[in-house]
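Lecture 7 notes: from sequence to structure.
We start with the chain below.
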Amino acid sequence: MPKVVEIPQGTLEMLILKAISLAPLHGYGILLRIQQISGERLEILQGSFYTAIYRLERQGWIKGEWGESENNRRARFYSLTAAGKRQLKAETAKWIDMTNVVAGILNKKADEV
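Predicted structure tokens for the same chain:
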């Protein structure tokens, strides 16, 4: 079983936006999608997860509509808004830039400084 990785602060919202960008999902489905895509390496606490969902909806980056889940339960399905698509694009670019900078620092040798 792969080692579980902690999610850096501020990353959860971006992961939720990405999961929803693939297909509209209900809350628990988003959580499962993130875990699936990560190869079960990310463990997300439901308390922080649902707080992030509500925050994203208040910011207008996602919208929720009531529907019926695959097990015939009433569930709120979330999809990205146009603002959410722009936010995901911006956050993805920032994340890639930041990881490239950190990787560059970690790969430096003493004689390269």
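Points to note: The chain is about 55% helix and 15% strand. Helices lie at 12-22, 27-37, 46-58, 82-106.
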